[in-house]
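Minutes, structural biology subgroup

Action item carried over from last meeting: produce the structure token record for Major facilitator superfamily (MFS) profile domain-containing protein (Didymosphaeria variabile). EB confirmed the sequence was re-checked against the source entry. Recorded below for completeness.
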Amino acid sequence: MSFDNKHDIVGDDEKASQIKVEQADNRLAPAQAMSEEEFASVEKKLKRKLDLRLATMVWLIFVLNYLDRTQNNIAAAKVAGIAKSLHMDSTQYATSVAILFVGYVLMQIPSNVFLTQLRPSLYLPLVMAAWGVLSALTGIVHNAAGLYATRFFLGFVEAAFYPGALFLLSSWYTRSELGTRSAFLFSGSQLGSAFSGLIGAGIQNSLEGARGLEAWRWLFIIEGSITVFIALCAILVLPDWPSTTRWLNETERAVAEWRLIKDAGQVDEDDESWSYGFKAAFADWRLYGFAFIFTCIQVASATSNFFPTIVQTLGFNRVNTLLLTAPPYIVSLFISIGNNWSADRLRNSSFHIM
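Output recorded by EB:
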């Protein structure tokens, strides 16, 4: 390549960068021209829309995520007789629990890389529909191998949601708003865990033997079908990115972008590929600290995989056993939201984490 040609390419890159900056300036102009009172008024309406459509929808999806994943429905299914029906011993059951997390770990990081290049309003509901189908298919397996296969692929597609939802929330809410919304999102896991026991009790009481199927099969089929329906609704409700969401007007999109820029203290003008953020994350020592803490938490909370079985040892029948699994999750729901609300108010997350 000649020097002149290289100079032309550099010049083209600079022109392209300049065009992007000008386009960003044009998008932000409506927000920058507002008075403080006007900006606050539009921002309030914007947050109301986001709380109603984004925060509420990802919360509902997360409830269903926990209904469909290993810790809850398969734990309830064990009480309802899945191990006996599939002629599984304790080792095979534990393997069916663990194998979901193989797919889960493999897909979480690649999924968020994909998400940066796609429309969240399509990507997240589509993976949700996929795990709903897989959950329903679990209700028709006839041996341990079939259960292993469905659980592995269930983890593979479910992995996209939680990190993707946090990423999407952080693309819309400021730092002082994100803690409470994140806690609200995570409360979906507690409610999903609680409902799993309640739904399991209802199905065990009402559908055992219906159409020749055991109650545990109905548990997977019903919960999976509900998930697919909600996924189709989510396509119409979820936003994309602040500059591309269609159900916001031009002024609201400008305010959404500008308030995040002000919160960050700088304009994000980097035109780097996804690898830039990937490398920056792995260069931050705090990432490893939080990863270690989270690993410890997950090890400690692994008892949820066997919680209904543990409660069953108290001597209650199947329905009451499943009902008794709900209260601890309801308590933790309120504690988690209250803790993060306090962290946002006091702007001190570290103390609240400890």
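Discussion: DSSP finds 17 helices and no strands in the chain.
Next step: EB to file the record with the rest of the batch.
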